[in-house]
Design a protein that fits this description.
The complex is a heterodimer of chains A (about 1300) and B (about 70). Chain A has 37 helices and 48 strands. In chain A, a hairpin with a 2-residue loop joins β14 and β15. Chain A has 6 domains: about 140 residues, 2-Layer Sandwich (Chloramphenicol Acetyltransferase); about 220 residues, 2-Layer Sandwich (Chloramphenicol Acetyltransferase); about 325 residues, 3-Layer(aba) Sandwich (Rossmann fold), CATH 3.40.50.12780; about 90 residues, 2-Layer Sandwich (GMP Synthetase, Chain A, domain 3), CATH 3.30.300; about 80 residues, Non-ribosomal Peptide Synthetase Peptidyl Carrier Protein, Chain A, CATH 1.10.1200; about 70 residues, no CATH class. The two termini of chain A are about 45 Å apart. In chain A, about 35% of the residues lie in helices and about 20% in strands. The longest helix of chain A has 20 residues. With about 70 residues, chain B is of the alpha+beta class. Chain B has one domain: Structural Genomics, Unknown Function 30-nov-00 1gh9 Mol_id (Rubredoxin-like), CATH 3.90.820. Chain B is about 25% helix and about 25% strand. Chain B has 2 helices and 4 strands. In chain B, strands 1, 2, 3 and 4 form a 4-stranded antiparallel beta sheet that branches. The chains are: A alpha/beta (about 1300), B alpha+beta (about 70). Chains A and B meet through α21 and β34 of A and β1, β2, α1 and α2 of B.
């Protein structure tokens, strides 16, 4: 059926219908699906009655009487001329009916709807109704059911449904929505970590369902569910002001309607559930009417729009549908699987059923299951405990918390002796066994003990006893170990002080701790402050004979063992005081977790100023083993590996940064000795570093240790076999060790669900006493433990607040995310630098990443620092981030460093990080060297408004856009009328000096091809331009496809110097074809055509079909001519309108400066085209532009558009046998653009892939498109 | 990181059996083994109270053993 006029009975499609129709047209219906309703009728309904009633409904309901008519130019209408017949089956049952409905799909050109009546195997019947999604959804079925009940005489007829709901789309409403949406961030559940290049899952969606119990008298209301969802999303880490998409229970509707709209809320977690319900109800009742298509289009106009503009989570609320007696639902359609998570809350007589349909590529099934449980808990607790603040509703229950927080299992009874007492016992059992090797020193267990005893007696004589602080100012080595053991034996507390640390720091420690005695060497005496009120004992002055007996001192378990100073965030180091009981217990359990024995020989590389350094000599000695202590801090990797080999070490404990150097050395030289265990620790360890350690170090087991000094040495470890993959940004911190528990808590001190980021807390007995002399800071950081009493029956226990952010992983281990105090707030957005760092670490070659908010004078600038890549890749890294992160999270600059600057303690020195210059100027404004340079420089300075621009500054790096480049070209043409110049010249030589050199050489300028990437082993990709495309648009794609993909881009002919009127498509591509022929004749290639460039690519493929090996032709949002200029579509004018329009045109032509060009163009039009042109002008809401002929003016663009339409309407496509992959922007579908279906032109074309969440302009820079295009390229190249 | 609303939140000073001091939000339950010291107050006032009371940071059992 075809008509050339719009019939009066025809109805236009709504934007939603247009979108679904377009999905079908390009061959990709998802996320929409055929809508199926299956009704059961029991024996009370006779077949004849059913057939009569159904036939009646099929004859009258619009869902069954619609036919679609497509006009030239792509306009589609609904006509009431369709017919749906009822197929009556004599044999069957429910299973057969289901199977039949699933396999007999409707189609738009034939039968858009199907109806089948089946016997149900007993005495009843089954009716299956299947609709194409463009015809309706569940609400449509509700109106069909209503009509059926009337036809069956079960219910009285109702008044007709209102034909349509008017969508208020005025600018005011849109602006209000925009403001509301932009101030509420899209809520998401935590995505799982996806390793780079992982294949997408075979099953695309996860489906889970729960039935919510009815806690009170009244049934659970829909607003209760929505309020519970708001609370759970907020508790799952969403921002304070959040939004998700919601659909209220729909009214029965003849046609499909969109009911989704964003629900924008700022829940108050300190208020009770009733408040959240009231807030939600208010928000639902006061939303302004608007079509969701309008909102989506509005949001997608921004290049950085979210792919789910309304919300990444959608909640559909559905009311119970009361069926007449004897009739049941076997199947009702579900909403489309369009969002990351689609929740459907269906009221039923049995209670509220909550169904989740989640993206399997983004979420762990377990997370979705827990999320549903948490919704249930919030709802239940909220309704039954109306006074409880919603932030205090437990999401994690006690059993789950007990499992998540549990330490490594260890039920060995605790040895009550202190650390030094256990070490001393080995002097009796294995006196002659080596205990300490350091430099030339070889101490047996007996020697070590006897020397320590001698010194201990002297300390006792000097007044050292319980709680007496004794400083050890001795370099790391055997003597330092003797000194420490002596202090402990005397009952005192030792304080390690590194002789080579800055004097001011050491002086602070000595005075702050109230040190009574200093153990040192005489040559360190001058490093002590003059006014120190402490007894100073120099080891080299002593001549005490070693003795077998220790002083008779009893150690109380709560007595002080050591004080270690940690750098505080305020600047002055704080002394952390640790007691004997927890220390000994920690060392004992650590020995077991590390599988240490008397055979253990460890090389501890950690400094003695950190507590970890002490654990790693104490534990081997407590087990009767031995340690090899480096006698200097600066061993080379060669020395370290040599020492391990020479002394037969089997364990080593080494800071991560040094271990990495060691591993690199070992890998390069193949000199890694076989080891049982390496332990290490430090800030976030990336998988690539972990892989290096696994590969190069020749060890069986690796342990990543974590722990603030306040929780004693290494309270958490992650112990794994070498080679383990951990599927995360950083290696897990693991689990607690000993009598400790680890918690991840939110701001309300409530445990976070797995996957949700919170602050890490450590509790149990394994925590420090506190900070020396700082009761207030101690009280703030060591807080009362609310969980110990519940989980372990302890009382009065404390939790230490680490200040580190983490989350529980799926396996229950804890993952490090970042520092709490580094969390940044910019423009109201909460930003986790760790998230940006993780994105940077995901880039090739990046080994370390750090993101900081730097104060730069008045300005606050977010800067990313990385090590690993070569310098010069900064811009590419930043562009890569653009594809991964929302705009507000993008660092202003990324800097590549040789290495991260460190302070004496091998910790990061933030202050030493450089600040980037405001603009990436290479030199300070180099002055021009010729007249030509001077002229061009003056011009560029004006355009860029940069009065100090130099001749070697990069036009684009200094803020120049493609548009400005076009203006610059236009101006430069006036200076050199004979020199052809294009944007290509700006790309290849983007500096004043560069472009002037090209101009003076002659014959170098004016090309239309730009090499976006020269090298690479893959077949070259040629990108054909859309209208006014300069090829800069392809930069992101070029980055995404990587260094191995050579790419050439062509400049749009309308930006070219030589503009000709009335050219053909063949003329336009002639230059491109020549270029490809020269470069790639006989070679494999791929083409990419965007928008109108698709037709150019097709024409080039036709001309070159026997000359190149075209592996793939990518078509991106390529549209056929719209109805405006399609040949054969006669425009319609109101009486007198045409004469008026011609009058307007004459008036305008009299004024425009482009008169000559327009006259030429209009002269080239035939009568039909001229009429179409008049109609086109008449349809324009804005007055005709008069700002030409400047190349970037509106009038110029308008001229190009019309010129292009003339070229286009003369062009005829021919079928070709080429492989085509086509892609359509989701937004183009809902706008009803007349997208090409390439399957009509090539047998080797596949249905279009739809890239949702982007539009015609932005699709080319969209990461989701890049990902799919790369997949298609890979497949095409792999086929050979 | 003190937000304007946070300054109005009330806290409670708590003390455990070893004479260690700490604090919790007044709206949160008091964990077993801790007893409140004085009335709920603003955070800064609670910290001041702790500074005044907690002059010997050794646990009570150690203080007794050494007495």
């Amino acid at each position: 059926m075809s008509k050339d006029f719009i019939s009066p009975t025809a109805q236009p499609l709504t934007p939603l219908e247009r979108r679904i129709y377009a999905h079908d047209h390009v061959g990709e219906l998802a996320p929409f699906a055929f809508e199926t309703l299956i009704l059961g009728f029991d024996h009370r309904f006779a077949r004849a009655d059913l057939v009569a009633a159904v036939t009646d409904v099929l004859a009258h309901h619009p869902a069954f009487t619609t036919a679609f008519v497509t006009h030239a130019g792509g306009t589609v209408e609904r006509h009431a001329t369709g017919h749906t017949g009822l197929a009556i089956h004599q044999v069957g049952n429910l299973d057969r009916a289901r199977a039949h409905a699933a396999t007999h799909a409707p189609d738009l050109t034939g039968k858009p709807a199907c109806a089948d009546l089946w016997p149900d195997g007993s005495a009843g019947h089954i009716l299956t109704l299947v609709l194409h999604p463009v015809l309706g959804d569940d609400a449509t079925f509700e109106s069909i059911e209503a009509a059926l009940w009337v036809a069956l005489g079960l219910r009285p007829a109702r008044t007709a449904l209102s034909a349509s709901v008017s969508d208020a789309q005025d600018m005011n409403t849109r602006a209000q929505w925009r403001e509301l949406m932009n101030s509420h961030r899209i809520a998401r559940l935590p995505h799982r970590y996806v390793p780079p290049d992982q294949e997408p899952p075979a099953v695309k969606r996860i489906a889970r369902q729960i039935t919510l119990p009815e806690p009170g008298e009244a049934p659970v209301a829909h607003t209760d569910i929505a309020a519970a969802l708001v609370i759970v999303l907020r508790r799952y880490g969403a921002q304070d002001a959040l939004r998700f998409a919601i659909a209220l229970p729909p009214q029965p509707a003849d046609r499909r309607r969109t009911d989704l709209r964003p629900l924008c809320l700022s829940p108050d977690l300190s208020a009770p559930f009733g408040d959240a319900v009231a807030l939600t109800a208010h928000a639902l009742n006061t939303t302004l009417p608007v079509s969701s298509e309008t909102l989506v289009q509005d949001q997608l106009a921004h290049a950085d729009a979210d792919p789910h503009p309304l919300g990444a989570i959608a909640l559909y609320l559905r009311a119970h549908r009361d069926l007449p007696e004897g009739i049941s639902h076997h199947l009702r359609p579900m909403p489309p699987s369009a969002e990351e998570l689609v929740l459907t809350a269906q009221s039923t007589p049995q209670g509220m059923v909550l169904h989740a349909d989640a993206d399997a590529g983004l979420f762990e099934p377990a997370l979705i299951e827990r999320f549903l449980r948490h919704l249930e808990r919030v709802l239940h607790t909220g309704l039954t405990r109306p006074d409880l603040p919603v932030g205090r509703i437990p999401l994690v229950d006690d059993t789950e918390l007990a499992a998540l927080s549990a330490p490594y299992p260890d039920d060995t009874p605790v040895d009550p002796r202190a650390t030094h007492e256990i070490i001393a016992a080995h002097a009796l059992t294995t006196p002659d066994k080596i205990a300490v090797i350091s430099g030339a020193d070889r101490l047996t267990h007996a020697t070590l003990d006897r020397r320590a005893n001698a010194l201990a007696h002297r300390l006792c004589a000097a007044g050292v006893g319980a709680e007496t602080p004794v400083a050890i100012l001795i370099e790391r080595g055997a003597d330092a170990i003797v000194a420490i053991l002596a202090v402990l034996k005397a009952g005192g507390a030792y304080i390690p002080v590194e002789p080579d640390h800055p004097g001011s720091r050491n002086h602070h420690i000595l005075s702050d701790a109230g040190v009574a005695v200093v153990l040192t060497r005489s040559h360190f005496r001058d490093r002590l402050p003059d006014a120190l009120a402490a007894r100073i004992i120099c080891l080299d002055d002593l001549d005490d004979a070693p003795r077998p007996d220790a002083p008779a001192v009893t150690i109380h378990p709560d007595q002080l063992a050591y004080v270690i100073y940690t750098s505080g965030s305020t600047g002055k180091p704080k002394g952390v005081a640790v007691e004997h009981g927890p220390l000994s217990h920690h060392n004992q359990t650590t020995a077991r977790v590390y599988d240490m024995t008397a055979e253990s020989r460890e090389l501890p590389f950690l400094p003695f100023s950190s507590d970890g350094g002490h654990e790693r000599w104490m534990v081997p000695l407590m087990m009767g083993g031995s340690v090899v202590v480096p006698d200097g801090p600066l061993w080379t990797p060669e020395q370290t590996l040599g020492a391990m080999r020479e002394h037969g070490c089997n364990n080593a404990s080494i800071p991560t940064t040094y271990l990495q150097q060691l591993a690199e050395w070992a890998e390069d030289t193949g000199t890694a000795p076989p080891m049982r265990l390496y332990s290490f620790g430090g800030e976030g360890l990336a998988q690539s570093t972990f892989d290096l350690l696994s590969r190069a170090l020749n060890a069986k087991t690796l342990i990543n240790g974590y722990g603030p000094t306040e929780t004693i040495m290494t309270p958490m470890v992650w112990k794994v076999a070498a080679g383990t993959r951990f599927h995360g940004t950083y290696a897990p911190l693991g689990r607690a060790v000993g009598d400790r528990r680890v918690y991840v808590l939110d701001e309300d001190m409530m445990p976070c669900p797995q996957g949700v980021v919170g602050e890490i807390y450590l509790g149990g007995t394994g925590v420090a006493r506190g900070y020396v002399g700082q009761p207030q800071v101690t009280a703030e950081r060591f807080i009362p433990d609310p969980f110990g009493p519940v989980l372990d029956g302890t009382s009065g226990a404390r939790l230490y607040r680490t200040g580190d952010q983490g989350r529980w992983r799926e396996d229950g281990t804890v993952e490090f995310v970042g520092r709490v105090d580094l969390q940044i707030k910019i423009n109201g957005y909460r930003i986790e630098p760790g998230e940006i760092e993780a994105a940077l670490l995901g880039e090739p070659d990046v080994t370390e990443a750090l993101v900081l908010l730097r104060e730069d004078g008045e300005a606050r600038r977010l800067i990313g620092y990385v090590t690993g890549p070569v310098r010069g890749t900064e811009d590419a890294l930043r562009r890569a981030l653009e594809t991964k992160l929302p705009k507000h999270m993008l660092p202003e600059a990324v800097m590549v460093l040789e290495k991260m600057p460190t302070n004496p303690n091998a910790k990061l020195d933030r202050a030493a990080l450089p600040l980037p210059e405001t603009r990436s100027r290479q030199t300070q404004g180099v002055a021009p060297a010729s007249d030509a340079e001077q002229q061009v420089l003056t011009l560029w300075r004006d355009l860029l408004t940069l009065p100090d621009l130099g001749v070697t500054d990069d036009f684009f790096a200094m803020g120049g856009s493609s548009l400005l480049a076009l203006r610059a070209i236009a101006a430069m043409r006036k200076l050199w009328p004979d020199v052809p110049l294009t944007v290509a010249d700006f790309f290849d030589a983007p500096t004043v000096r560069g472009i002037c050199a090209r101009i003076s050489q002659g014959g170098q300028t004016g090309r239309a091809a730009i090499t976006l990437r020269a090298g690479g082993t893959r077949p070259r990709l040629y990108c054909f331009p859309g209208l006014l495309v300069s090829t800069r648009e392809y930069l992101r794609l070029t980055d995404y496809l990587g260094p191995d993909q050579p790419i050439t881009g062509f400049l749009c002919h309308s930006l070219n110097e030589n503009k000709q009127l009335n050219v053909s498509v063949a003329d336009v591509v002639a230059e491109y074809v020549d270029h490809i022929r020269r470069e790639s004749a006989g070679a494999p290639v791929a083409f990419l055509g965007w928008s109108w460039g698709g037709l150019l690519a097709w024409e080039a493929a036709r001309q070159l079909q026997h000359e190149v090996d075209l592996k793939l032709l990518g078509m991106v949002d390529v549209c056929d001519l719209g109805s405006d200029f399609t040949p054969g579509v006669a425009p319609v004018f109101a009486p007198g309108e045409r004469a008026q329009l011609e009058d307007d045109l004459r008036t305008w032509l009299a004024r425009t400066q482009m008169r000559a060009q327009w006259d030429q163009l209009i002269g080239a039009m035939d009568a039909e085209c001229y009429a179409q042109f008049l109609r086109f002008i008449g349809n324009e809401s804005d007055p005709l532009p008069c700002d030409g002929p400047e190349i970037s003016s509106r009038e110029h663009t308008f001229w190009v558009l019309i010129d292009n339409a003339l070229v286009f309407r003369q062009h005829r496509l021919t079928p070709l046998d080429v492989p085509v992959a086509s892609f359509s922007a989701g937004d183009s579908l809902s706008r009803g653009l007349n997208l090409m279906d390439w399957r009509k032109w090539s047998a080797r074309a596949t249905p279009a892939e739809i890239v949702s969440g982007t539009n015609h302009l932005h699709i080319i820079g969209d990461p989701a498109f890049h990902d799919r295009f790369r997949a298609r390229l890979n497949a095409a190249f792999a086929m050979g | 990181m003190t937000l304007p609303t946070e300054t109005r939140i009330l806290w409670r000073v708590l003390r455990n059996g070893e004479g260690r001091y700490s604090m919790t939000r007044a709206t949160h339950p008091i964990p077993a083994g801790w007893t409140p010291v004085g009335d709920a107050a603003l955070r800064t006032d609670c910290l001041e109270r702790i500074g005044a009371l907690w002059t010997d940071m050794r646990p009570l059992s150690v203080q007794e053993a050494l007495a």
